[in-house]
Amino acid sequence: MKRKRIGGSTAVTLMMIGVAVVCYAGVLDGTRGKVTVVPDKAAADKGEKEFGDTLSFTNGKFSSAFFLAKGFGPAKYNGETEENEAEFEVEQTSVTNGVIDWLGEVRGKKFVGKLEWKKKKDGPALTYNFEGTKE
């Protein structure tokens, strides 16, 4: 079997590509931000209101101060980073209040994203957008 040798500059380029995108839990650890969470029109029509929240990433887990008070404990998140940007997704579950799916980005000092809250007992799925700043 013949082995093909990769030249030095090609190997360095491949290594740089491999480092450009990092995807794992814990990539955002130490990140914290204050956001405003705004219901979309359908959720607002159901009586949902805008609220402030603090999001944090610690030890591979994501936490929302607002939803912590509603029984949604810290949950493992998945993150991906590129130059000047990071993306995250997480699912939080509460025994009494359902499931929340978060999908967000951190760009420089800015947090943006959306969440969908599927309430228990055949409640509606509510969609919110969030935006804020990294502390």
Characterise this structure.
- This protein has helices at 8-20, 41-45, 65-68; strands at 22-23, 32-39, 51-58, 61-64, 75-82, 85-94, 98-107, 110-118, 125-134.
- It has 135 residues and is of the alpha+beta class.
- The chain has one domain (24-134): Lipocalin (Beta Barrel), CATH 2.40.128.
- It has an eight-stranded antiparallel barrel with strand order 2-3-4-5-6-7-8-9.
- It is built from three helices and nine strands, in the order αββαββαβββββ.
- Strand 8 and strand 9 (125-134) form a beta hairpin.
- The longest helix has 13 residues, at 8-20.
CATH topology: Lipocalin
Mean pLDDT: 85
CATH class categorisation: Mainly Beta
Architecture (CATH level 2) name: Beta Barrel
**Strand segment tally:** 9
- How is the main sheet built? 8 strands, antiparallel, barrel
The percentage helix is 10-25%
How are helices and strands ordered from N to C? HEEHEEHEEEEE
Give, in spatial order, the strands making up the sheet with the most strands: 2-3-4-5-6-7-8-9
Broad shape: globular
Any idea how many domains?
1
The secondary-structure class comes to alpha+beta
The low-confidence parts are 1-23
CA-based gyration radius: 19 Å
State the end-to-end distance: 55 Å
Percentage beta strand: over 45%
By DSSP (H or I, 4+ residues per run), the number of helices equals: 3
Q: Briefly, what is this?
A:
16% of the residues lie in helices and 51% in strands. The chain is an alpha+beta fold.
Topology:
Layout: H1 8-20, E1 22-23, E2 32-39, H2 41-45, E3 51-58, E4 61-64, H3 65-68, E5 75-82, E6 85-94, E7 98-107, E8 110-118, E9 125-134
